[in-house]
Amino acid sequence: MTRTIVASATREIVIGFDQPFCVIGERINPTGRKKLAAEMVAGNFETVEKDALEQVRAGATMLDVNAGVTAVDPNATEPALLVQTLEIVQNLVDVPLSIDSSVSAAIEAALKVAKGRPLVNSVTGEEEKLEAILPLVKKYDVPVVAISNDETGISMDPDVRFAVAKKIVERCADFGIPTHDVVVDPLVMPIGALGDAGRQVFALLRRLREELKVNTTCGLSNISFGLPHRHGINAAFIPMVIGAGMTSAIMNPCRPQEMEAVRGANVLAGTDKDCTTWIRTYKDYKPAEGGHAAPAPVAVNSPGEPSSAGGRRRGGREARLAARG
Amino acid sequence: MTRTIVASATREIVIGFDQPFCVIGERINPTGRKKLAAEMVAGNFETVEKDALEQVRAGATMLDVNAGVTAVDPNATEPALLVQTLEIVQNLVDVPLSIDSSVSAAIEAALKVAKGRPLVNSVTGEEEKLEAILPLVKKYDVPVVAISNDETGISMDPDVRFAVAKKIVERCADFGIPTHDVVVDPLVMPIGALGDAGRQVFALLRRLREELKVNTTCGLSNISFGLPHRHGINAAFIPMVIGAGMTSAIMNPCRPQEMEAVRGANVLAGTDKDCTTWIRTYKDYKPAEGGHAAPAPVAVNSPGEPSSAGGRRRGGREARLAARG
């Protein structure tokens, strides 16, 4: 059974076929968020802190941390800023983190200060990337996201994307990195542009699970790019990828419709034992008139549910009761 | 490619692997609805008419019609009442119908008056049932729902349920009924009682599609029986069964959350070409604050979408525009 272990200073999470879906909160990322980028450059981390707390409260299993504030000379700014951001986040919440950068020096700098066992996000099949990232992954003994594109770009042929993933797994093995520490991103295309995007990714996920036996992840909301009511498409996509074998996704946990889809699919995939998390989360749920979703409750802790907020020590119901007391 | 053709007097629908999911509206059924049963016995069909119109407006592809008002001597009451109900419904809406009864004489009586090509719901693997129903199915050249249980009851072993389905398909062939006219119901168990119910049905659906090459259906909401916020479980289950190969379900189309899951899964499975139905249905959709689902719009017709309300002649946007004019 493939098990990818990630950890903060105090909490360990397993990503695996028999585990609840791992929700990697995507919000701490200045890409496309000009205001956040400006704040971070100015040394203001209020939004970062707010995003960290909100995502954990909403049920994120892990948080992705990206400090790519500029496309102009990121090598100069990103290592220090990523370290600063990572330290703020890991001192604030206790979920495991994903170190997200296209700058190898920033990844290395962050690995030096990260507590626990972070996930490196990411390496691709490009030779230069493999040579830069895999020695770090080996040295720090951490898992890595492997994106299935290479020097030729992103292939529209799923067989090529599978072959690229396979090549990365093999290169990892050459570096002494075990397969269970490679989390493959098969690359999700927008369904509005490519009508076959769904079927492609479902077929790829099955092969990645059955043939390569790797854990998988994706930038989930790509699927709905350009369509109206994107959350509806995302919420249908989540159970389908979970059914096809995906074990984690980089997504926004602050959207109740998507998190409800994750929790529902966990029940149906048999990873929410005795429906414990579902029942605790929704037992007092009253749908709005006409059967529409009402505001979803804050995630409620349950023993053994890694995706609940902040661990047993300070998340969920206990925390709220404590706050009242 | 397996194609099951159903039809009303004026509309033909194909159930198939390459078709949008076929939503069979479940509401016209007095089982467990004492008030409706009393009305129907008294010759009052107002609720039946309301349920027919509402379900078609909500996007039902077909309607199930059941007149099982009593468990006491149904043979005496059900044939005439089913005929009466069926005639009222088929004169009111133009979607194809499913004739739902456990009384063989009622099915035969309804087949005599049904227009188009109704679906017979259902036969099981019980010898007595096979002998009673299959000659009718052959005589009237209609498709039939095959429920995978037999004299021994419902097996908890999915291999046995598959074997029962296979036996029914073979018996149908003996009667000259082609495989594409058998729609197998693999039987969905409540996930709250049987933690493996989801994985069982996904595995069964794949085998039914790949090995028997049959269309499939189920009583969808069984999956969430006994759990809180059932619509959330149903809405996660729908994309998962569609991903596993299910082609229709008997369900309540008047629940926006479930119908949104159907439409989203059609997009992702590639059966909503160019996302046409999704875009038309949700292009003006505004989610409520906090990302919760707002009231869903009434189904909007699109060329080639069989699941939209009442056909091009009177459903959807045209009808509403006409009503205004």
Q: What this model shows, in words?
A:
- The first copy, chain A, is α/β, with parallel strands linked by helices and 325 residues long.
- Helices cover 45% and strands 13% of the residues of chain A.
- Chain A has helices at residues 34-41, 46-58, 74-92, 104-113, 127-140, 158-174, 197-212, 230-244, 256-269, 276-282, 311-314, 316-324, and strands spanning 3-7, 12-16, 22-25, 62-66, 97-100, 119-124, 144-147, 182-185, 215-216, 248-251.
- In chain A, the strands form two sheets. In chain A, strands 9-8-7-6-5-4-3-10 form an eight-stranded parallel sheet. In chain A, strands 1-2 form a two-stranded antiparallel ribbon.
- In chain A, helix 3 runs parallel beside helix 4.
- At the A-B interface, helix 7, helix 8, helix 9 and helix 10 of A face helix 7, helix 8, helix 9 and helix 10 of B.
Q: What's the layout of helices and strands?
A:
Two copies of one chain form a homodimer.
Chain A: E1 3-7, E2 12-16, E3 22-25, H1 34-41, H2 46-58, E4 62-66, H3 74-92, E5 97-100, H4 104-113, E6 119-124, H5 127-140, E7 144-147, H6 158-174, E8 182-185, H7 197-212, E9 215-216, H8 230-244, E10 248-251, H9 256-269, H10 276-282, H11 311-314, H12 316-324
Parallel strand pairs in A: 3-4, 3-10, 4-5, 5-6, 6-7, 7-8, 8-9
Antiparallel strand pairs in A: 1-2
Helix pairs in contact in A: 2-3, 3-4, 4-5, 6-7, 7-8, 8-9
Keywords:
homodimer, 325 residues, alpha/beta, eight-stranded parallel beta sheet, two-stranded antiparallel ribbon, 12 helices, 45% helix, globular
Short recap of the structure:
Two copies of one chain form a homodimer. In chain A, helix 2 (46-58) packs across helix 3, helix 3 runs parallel beside helix 4 (104-113) and helix 8 (230-244) packs parallel to helix 9. The termini of chain A are far apart.
